[in-house]
């Protein structure tokens, strides 16, 4: 920019000591204007652009038809970043003198800085027509054509939803067009769509500080709030953007989506609180179809629907919904907690431990620590024999239910009942018979059951289950000191007539 904004400094030669002859009025005016220009040049050289601007303005006021004065003031305005004003001065300079090469260069530079690459190319081509060896004009023409290309690529990539590439193209274009609000807005919109909300807000806010009525910047600011699930505030910005530009299509669509999403979500929440889970599921599903780009709100909707599915005991569906929620927002603690509980309920303890570990790493609270500890305990317990499953009873089964279950399973797997089976079957049934005896030994003893339920290692408690005799458990349960034999056949209800010396089982 320094090269493009270089002033036409003309250093006055030292004058003789004798007083100058009196000049006609127009000559004196030109001389005074030239003095203002020289003072402006001096301030420009010292980078005091505000003072330089003031003196160039005085020179213009004295001689409003001097092209170089407008050219110098344009250069100063460019250094101050006031490209629109600079453009006006540069255009005036070439209107006054169409052969003014630096005027055409400055006009082109202003067009380029403001993002009008096509107009910039025309200016640089004109400069090259006047001076085909001008290296600055050659380079600036290349820059302008590069910006045109970046703009075309960005437009195509936006249609393809390749927002990262759009941001890349806009960053490259903004290197040559730093004052182009259009490029900044497109970049900010894509940053918002990529979930990079602080960056997008920063860009939009910078524009609004310079122009509080910029509808595009208001729209992007609202979009960031919308995607951060601050829907009410977002609607305010969309409405403000529509006041500035009633035909702003994106603001209109976003405003409509925001209002619809807020209404559906609130209706779903109300249905859930009322216990109408089927309706809540339908409303959350409808809300999820409104705007796939709203990641944070959709993450919450998936989690809410997962909670509904958990209430309906559709645990696999609940897990899937929570998984979708954390895919959209991997910091969403509530979704991890909900999924972890569903994993516990479906006895997927390793997965539950992973989720609780993620939660505890993020928020080290006592509650989260306890949840992790409980899941780790359940995982440890799951790797032992599940005596409740072996007996086929619930973990809250009563003493009578445990005895009844043992009686049924012990008779079902007793080796004598399978004496005519193959060696392989006999071995398997003998193993099951022993496990049934183990299960009954533990679950029928309140102290052992408590230790087992708490996850303690029974072998460490001096209860080595490898040495006990399942037959002794069987005899002790059924009574009778003597031998044991099966008689008769089994009917379709698996009832067994068992003869034991000293007693007759029904």
UniProtKB/TrEMBL annotation:
Superkingdom of origin organism: Eukaryota
TPR repeat locations: 33-66, 215-248, 261-294, 333-366
Disordered, as annotated region: 1-37
Keyword Cell membrane in annotation: no
Record's GO cellular component terms: cytoskeleton; cytosol; nucleoplasm
InterPro entries: DnaJ_domain, J_dom_sf, TPR-like_helical_dom_sf, TPR_rpt
UniProt xrefs under Pfam families: DnaJ, TPR_11, TPR_16, TPR_8
Domain J: 386-456
GO BP annotations, alphabetical order: protein folding
Protein name, per record: DnaJ homolog subfamily C member 7
Native organism: Vombatus ursinus
Chain's gene name: DNAJC7
């Amino acid at each position: 920019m320094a090269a493009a904004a270089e002033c036409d400094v003309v250093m006055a030669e030292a004058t003789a000591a004798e007083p100058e002859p009196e000049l006609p009025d127009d000559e004196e005016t030109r001389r005074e204007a030239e003095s203002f220009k020289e003072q402006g040049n001096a301030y420009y050289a010292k980078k005091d652009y505000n003072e330089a601007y003031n003196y160039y303005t005085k020179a213009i006021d004295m001689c409003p038809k001097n092209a170089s004065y407008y050219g110098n003031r344009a250069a100063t305005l460019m250094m101050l970043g006031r490209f629109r004003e600079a453009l006006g001065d540069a255009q005036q300079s070439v209107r006054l003198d169409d052969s003014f090469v630096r005027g055409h260069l400055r006009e082109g530079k202003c067009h380029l800085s403001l993002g009008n690459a096509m107009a910039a190319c025309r200016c640089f081509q004109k400069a090259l027509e006047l001076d085909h060896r001008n290296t600055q004009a050659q380079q600036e023409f290349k820059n302008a054509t590069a910006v045109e290309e970046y703009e075309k690529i960005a437009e195509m990539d936006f249609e393809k939803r390749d927002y990262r590439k759009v941001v890349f193209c806009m960053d490259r274009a903004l290197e040559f067009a730093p004052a182009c609000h259009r490029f900044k807005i497109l970049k900010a919109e894509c940053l918002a769509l990529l979930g990079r909300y602080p960056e997008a807000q920063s860009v939009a806010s910078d524009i609004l500080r310079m122009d509080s009525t910029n509808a595009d910047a208001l729209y992007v600011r609202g979009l960031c709030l919308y995607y951060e699930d601050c829907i009410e505030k977002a609607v305010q910005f969309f409405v403000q953007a529509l006041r500035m530009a009633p035909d702003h299509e994106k603001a209109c669509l976003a405003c409509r989506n925001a209002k619809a999403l807020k209404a559906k979500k609130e209706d779903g929440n109300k249905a859930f609180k009322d216990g109408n889970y089927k309706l809540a599921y339908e409303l959350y599903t409808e809300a999820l179809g409104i705007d796939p780009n709203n990641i944070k709100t959709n993450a919450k909707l998936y989690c809410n629907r997962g909670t509904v599915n958990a209430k309906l005991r559709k645990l696999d569906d609940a897990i899937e919904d929570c998984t979708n929620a954390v895919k959209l927002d991997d910091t969403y603690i509530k979704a991890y907690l909900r999924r972890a509980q569903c994993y516990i309920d479906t006895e997927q303890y390793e997965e539950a431990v992973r989720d609780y570990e993620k939660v505890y790493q993020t928020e080290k609270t006592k509650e989260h620590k306890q949840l992790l500890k409980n899941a780790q305990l359940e995982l440890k317990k799951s790797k032992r024999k599940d005596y409740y499953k072996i007996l086929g009873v619930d973990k809250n089964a009563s003493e009578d239910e445990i005895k009844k279950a043992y009686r049924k399973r012990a008779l079902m797997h007793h080796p004598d009942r399978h004496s005519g089976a193959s060696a392989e079957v006999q071995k398997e049934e003998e193993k099951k018979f022993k496990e049934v005896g183990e299960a009954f030994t533990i679950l029928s003893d309140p102290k052992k059951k408590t230790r087992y339920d708490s996850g303690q290692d029974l072998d460490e408690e001096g209860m080595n289950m490898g040495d006990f005799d399942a037959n002794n458990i069987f005899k002790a349960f059924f009574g009778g000191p003597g031998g044991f034999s099966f008689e008769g056949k089994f009917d379709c209800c698996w009832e067994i007539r068992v003869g034991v010396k000293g007693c007759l089982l029904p």
